[in-house]
Structure formats: C-alpha cells, structure tokens
Structure prediction request, 316 residues.
Amino acid sequence: MVGILLIWWSLHQIPPQEWDKFTIALKKSKFWFILPVGFILGLSHLIRALRWRLIMEPLGYKPRTINTFLAVLIGYLANLAIPRLGEVLKCTLLSKYEKVPAEKIVGTIVAERAFDVISLGIVFLLALGLQFNVVEAGWNQFKVYGKLADEGGKSNQNLYIVIAIIVVLVIAAFWFFKSKMHNAIQSVKKIIKGVWEGVISATKLKKHNLFFFYSFAIWFLYLLATYVGLYATEGTGSSFQTAISCLAFASVGMIITPGGIGAYAYFMAKVLELNGIDYTLGLANGTLQWFSQFIIVLVLGGIALMVLPLFNKQKI
Prediction:
C-alpha cells in the first residue's frame, strides 16, 4: 500500500511540462545495461551464498554450493511476493535437499541480516563523509515518507481491527486448549534453541578474514551495480561518491516497501537531485534500475526454481 502511494507521490513530483522528458529518458535508456548489472548482481548473490555456507560450518553443516546458491535466488524471488518469505523459504529448501535442521539455518539468516545492517551503517558513514550535505538533506526526505506512511496507515484501520479480532480469538483458543499445549510449547522451545545456535554460529567462525572479504565483496558489487546503472539513462552518469549515497538510500527503500517498489526510485531521484541532476531524469534512472533488478531476480529466481528440483532429483 505504502509502495503504491509512494509511486503516485513520486510521479506527481514531476511538473506536467516535464512528463515528456521523463518518458523520453526511459525510451532512450540503454536497456542493454541490464546485462552487466545482471552479471554483477548475480555474482553478489553467489558470494552471499558462499558467505551463508561459511556461517553454517560451525554448526557442522557444509551444504553444496549449488544448492545454497539456488536457494538464495529462490529466496529473492519469493521476497518479491511477500517480504521476508524468501528468508524462510530458502531455509526450508536447503533443509529439504541438504538434510540440515531448518531452525538452525534460520538462525544463521538472523546473524547474516544483523551483519548486513552493520554494513549498511558503514555505507551511510562513507556517504556522510563524502557527501555530508546530501546525506543530511536526504534524511529530511524520510519526513515526507513518514507522512505518506501515516496516510497509508489510516487507510488500513479495518485491517488493524481484523488483526485485533484474530489476536482475541487466538488468546481464547489458547485458554480453551491449554491442556494440550505442553507438546506445542516443547516444540517451540526446540525451535528457539535451534535458531539461537544458528545465530551464535557467526561468533564461532574459523575463517573470519574470508567472511569479511565476502561481506565487503557483496556490498562493493551492490555499489558497482548502482554506479554502472547510473549510466543507463542520459544525463544521470555520476561519480562513485554519488553512487554510494544512492546505494545507501536505495537500500533503505528496498527494506521499507516490498521489493523496494516506489521507494527505491523515489530515493534515488532525490539523491540525484541533491547532486545537481534533474529530478525527472533521476526518477527515470531510479525506475529503470529498480525494474532491472526486478527482472534479474525474476529471471534468475525462476531458473533456480526449475533447476533446483531437477539437480536434486536423483538425491531425494
């Protein structure tokens, strides 16, 4: 809902007389840029799979790289439909094909995401050091987004009522069936224990240097893909410093709306505007970069979805 609202908002920031510039910028875009960007992002996904596999080693599990990589791609595909569904799905798939406890590798995902938050913080610090005024002004854009989120939240009051009713029913069911809850509680405890083991596995790594190299490589490739993508539309090519600021805010956009819909292009456009690039051209570039990433995930994830069961057919 918020993503759709943000698309509407960002498009309405374009003055009527600038619409031709927006559509022409998209028509003249170098769509072949999807190929190098796709290769760069595909490589980043492979390295993410290698890092995930590395975190699982202290638990005593070494899943095959191909299965881990395909599960990561399918996870990204699932996230396009329902945010964070992919994190659970890729653990379920790896558990199925590699016979590892799903609850433990869910814990490794938690550890991975915690480190990704730290990495994003480092990217913001770099952007702050290189483009202080841009980052400061960029944060003010979140106030606008916050207002949009509030407006979207008001339209979801009926949803909140439904959720409240469900919570009441769940509590009532708990009290009604509490005599049968003992086994369920034990199962939950087992799951929590497994997840915790997965989380602390990141503190028992034997190859710390390799883990940090993988983490650096993942975010460097994200930066490189953003930088290359800036040259896909006329008038938006820029420096690595600008690309760092774009990556910082666009990454937040990917988090706050499903698949970054609306938010990614909007924040890209605003950062580019603060770097002296026309908002309309920036929005065209942000839209194209978001669409490119969407297509890349759709294609790679779709291929992985078909290949994974075929590759493991004789092993099930």
